[in-house]
Amino acid sequence: MIVRPRYHWFSLLFIWRGSVVPRILSRLMLVLCISLLACLTAPWWVSHHAQSSLNIYIFTLLGVSLAIFLGFRNSASYDRFWEARKLWGALLIAGRELTGKSLALAPAAPQTAQLIDGLCAFIYALKGHLRQDDIGPHLQRLLPEQVRQRVLAGRNKPALVAAWLQQLLADMRRDGCINDWQWQMLDRNMDMLLEAQGGCERISGTPIPFTYRVLLNRTVTIYCMLLPIGLTTSIGWLTPLIAVFVAYTFLALDTLGDELEEPFGKEGNDLPLAAMSHNIEASLREIQGVPLEVEAPRPEGIYLH
Fold first, then answer.
1. What percent of the chain is modeled with pLDDT above 90?
2. DSSP of 4-40, one letter per residue?
3. Which residues neighbour 198 within 8 Å (Cβ) at sequence distance 6 or greater?
């Protein structure tokens, strides 16, 4: 995720890192070359094939339709991104509530400290599950050896950690550390954690249909390649400038939709899950009154300058 200070509008014109320009630069250069070639050959083409020249009004109609489709696709992609962010916000809320309630209801119970460690482990396990990251070091410091081995051997690691947390709550209820009503209250927070996990897995496992992506990519690319041929008959040598600008707008929107579609990745505009996981643990440790054992990471894709 891009994290920057607020820049003046003029400075934003020249920012390179964090923009999608590096990903579309080769296609912009191709549009520029086609524009220059079209300008050079326009007099010959018009004199010999005047009836078959492309009309700019065709591109106007196509451009409006293409903008509508790109707007719909980007809206759908941003909805996925924002829903993912809300789900991780729900994880923070549920973790804080479960930590605060367990400390208030059973501060002396041996399971309470394990419960808070397990909550932190659940967050890191979910991050690793979504990104296919190595979370072994976090699980080693947060989980008992027997539980850690079982979690590492499983396919859905956060679900296994959650099952262990539910067993801890059941043990606290059985040992008399909490009563039935208090157990139900804590169990509702566990349900919030599992619901957030299910929502994240739904977003990660259900991308926007590939056919729709292919259709937009082909349409945008062909439109940008043919646009200079239609512009030369109306604006002449201004074609390279206008064609590249229009191509930048359409290609950038298409590329940005690709990045936002997968919010749990490691590209510049994806969610900074490593930093968010660390911040959740820091919040829970502060409630617990225990110093944080790990330093804040610098996740992939975050630019501070």
1. 55
2. -----HHHHTT--TTSSHHHHHHHHHHHHHHHHHHHH
3. none
93: amino acid identity, one letter: I
Q: Is the pLDDT of residue 278 over 90?
A: yes
- Please answer whether residues 175 and 182 qualify as being in contact, where contact means their C-beta atoms are separated by less than 8 angstroms: no
* Closest of 249, 244, 251, 252 to residue 31, by C-alpha: 244
pLDDT tens for 24-65 read: 999 999 999 999 998 888 776 656 555 555 667 778 878 888
- pLDDT recorded at residue 304: 35
For residues 285 and 287, give the distance between their C-alpha atoms in angstroms, rounded to a whole number: 5
What's the Cα-to-Cα distance from 190 to each of 143, 145, 187, 232, rounded to whole Å? 18, 23, 5, 63
Question: Is the separation of the CB atoms in 74 and 260 below 8 Å?
Answer: yes
Summarize the confidence of residues 178-182 as an average pLDDT: 92
Token pair in block for residue 17:
């890192």
Other beta carbons within 10 angstroms of residue 139's beta carbon come to 21
- Residue 117 class from Cβ within 10 Å (0-12 exposed, 13-18 middle, 19+ buried)? buried
- Picking from 130, 123, 167, 127, the residue whose alpha carbon sits closest to that of residue 147 is 167
Q: How far apart are CA 229 and CA 278, in angstroms?
A: 53
